[in-house]
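ok posting inputs for the zinc ion job
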Amino acid sequence: MNVPATMKALQLTAPGKLSAVELPVPQPGPDEVLVRTVATTICTSDLNDIAHNPFGIALPRVLGHEGAGTVAALGRRVQGFQPGELVAAHPVIPCGHCENCRRGLAHLCARMGHLGLDRDGTFAEFFCIRADRVRRAPVSLPAHAASLLEPVAVCLEAVQRGRIQSGDSVVVVGDGPFGILIARLASKHSPKTIILVGRHEFRLRQVPSVIAINEKDTPNVLGTIRAAIRMATSSATSLRSQQPSLPLPAQRGEGWGERPPGLSQRTSSPRPSAPSEEEREETSFPETFGRTFRGGAGADVAIMATGTQSALDLCAACLRARGRLVVFSALQGRAALDLFRLHTQELEILGACNDQDLIDPALERLADPALALASLVTHRVPFGEWPRAFELARGRKDEALKVALIFPETA
Ligand SMILES: [Zn+2]
Ligand SMILES: [Zn+2]
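and the output
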């Protein structure tokens, strides 16, 4: 393959300043693959890096860490790839030697490399990546979908950390691209119901068969979540009591996540009438000691997919006894948490950061037509029009989810 001497790239030169520059095409190291970028998707973290460089990236740096493209050249020790084939890249580069790596927790590596952070990333016509972090894309997968490899992998980690099981009630708080992805991926685990809480009608519509709650027009979000879970539970129970051998709805298309009667998609309130005594009790906050031991309707798993105190409050409050709270989006610094409720309800809190060897399962999910994950890329923008792509990703939450920069394919 003909590799030119220079390439176009987007470099962060100072906080707030992303610039199109001409750079030498990087040479792959002995264990690396040189990829000619076909598609690269913009991540929320790219937007944060551009705005205020929270990780203190040494500048200038080519940003971007979600990318797919064709193999352009191979380092001398690399085998198993053919020039020209489409590959997806995972941006995390574990060192392989630190204590966490040796414990099998390479995703929490103490000396982790990362595309777009400590080395140049995917917002460029070419990028280099260690070969063990690259996979051949399934033939059915377009490049803009293959570039979602890492976001899908990290969202799978959140689902796995939550140990979502058949029949669980799952609440996802946050309707950004990650929250949407997590809700879609959770559907593969046959939960009884998935409730997605967010603030954007367009985004809340992106997960079929969930109960979507728009916080902006729901006065009592916690009460609405509990009412939805109670209705889903009672409809499942009454079905089973009519027909004892009938299992819980097991998979998509057989009724999981169907809305309980009376609860509309993107509901503002499932209760036309005044709340019952029980409901008033359940939604009063802080809860009473007596209420704590009575239990009540609640979620088995709550996934925090937006980093705010109110999201943490909602996730912790909506869980039932032994419920699991997955912190996918973090809050900076200390956060307030009701430890009394955590104690009396035996709640669990689990962090989810990067992914533990989920590259191959993520590719499987990407190739799964039932999940239609490629549809999360709402906009494909030619690389030359990159300012428009970033504007869409940053400011158009009512029409854009994932925005991909697309490079002209040249043989
Ligand atoms: Zn990302
Ligand atoms: Zn390591």
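notes: The longest strand covers residues 32-41. Residues 6-153+355-406 form a domain with the Quinone Oxidoreductase; Chain A, domain 1 fold (CATH 3.90.180.10).
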